Amino acid sequence: MIETASPTLLFAALFALAALILAGRLRRRRNQVDDSTSRAAREGERADRESARAERRAQRLDALLDATDDAVMRVLPDLTIRAASPACREILAREVDDLRGRPLIEATVDHRLEELAREALSGTISRGEISLRDLRPGHSDEMRHVQVTAAPDGDDGAWILLRDLTEVVRLRQIRTEFVDNLSHELRTPLSTIRLLAESIATAGERGDPSGAKERASQIEVEVLHLVQMADEMLDLATLESGEVALRTAPVDLRDLAQEVATRFTPVATRHGGKILVEEVGPGPWMVPGDRDRLRQVFANLVHNGVKYSRPEGKVTIRLSSSSVTEANPYVEIQVADEGIGIERRHLSRIFERFYTVERIPNETPSVGGAGTGLGLAIARHAILRHGGSIEADSTVGVGTTFTIRLPLR
User: Fold this and answer.
1) Is 111 exposed, middle or buried (0-12, 13-18, 19+ CB in 10 A)?
2) Peptide bond before 86: cis, by omega within 30 degrees of 0?
3) Which of 51, 57, 260, 394 lies 20 to 30 Å from 290 when distance is taken between CA atoms?
4) What would the pLDDT profile of 282-333 be if each residue is shown by its tens digit?
């Protein structure tokens, strides 16, 4: 006879079975949770690693951009600037922090640059030359010539390399002007010498010696002009190279000014003008320097003043020590004329080699007469070699003043 299990035992068995089933489910759920947690942790770690790698890449990129002397930018597909090297500040006149996140067109204001960037973003290396408005203070009327290379960055952006060619273009222009000026300067005296020589030869064939002495004197004048030009070119090359040391000794500026004034007074007198030497302050007028070089500077400036002054105008050499202090141990020399003046837009370039205003195409001369454009360049380099400075101020129709500052020590 089969005994029937008591309800209590049956309930206990069922409870035990349910507990086992629930425990199994809990273990599976816990395992699932653990798996999800592990996956989330792994995904989090992977994201952290990716973020760290991205941060390291960004740091390496910033370090690379900081180290390069080239102006380099990285742009994103939306043509915003992601990164920029410090050299961009010189070309674009903006701080690096101000460039980041800014649209390319807003930072450069140049559609051609944006076109080159778009070509690079499409996978093509592109090159070109553009002209950007110089945004530096005081240069708003100037342009900067920039060579651009844009290339894909292997990701989703593009690299843009900017190379400033402004100085190269300027030197190219100076070289062209030099050749033109030199050709002009050589052609005139050489043609004159040839004509005078032919005239002397023709007169000799006729047995007529009259006028030969005068023509020979004119030939001598032209030859001296050529020699002077050659000497000036050699002087400028010597000063620029710095290969020849200055023969420094105490120089009395007052005596030097009187010497140069005496030398050019006959030339000024022929035009009804005069040369004055003035002193402002008690001195001292003694400075350390190369007397020959300083005499050349004074002579170039006074000769220009006499040459470009109006009839009966005067040229003044003014020595001033009124501002000499321990904090400002410089004596000031001014050479002022009452001439035709120089237009203000040319003042920043008149100390350049071979720069003469009358040779600029379609330019109304604001500096009279022809010249090699070497005198002021020589004066500037000589003064700089003495540790001083030279600048010019001018008003058209009123005159020009050159101001020199030479250290007393």
Assistant:
1) exposed
2) no
3) 394
4) 878 899 999 988 998 998 899 888 888 888 888 999 999 877 777 778 899 9
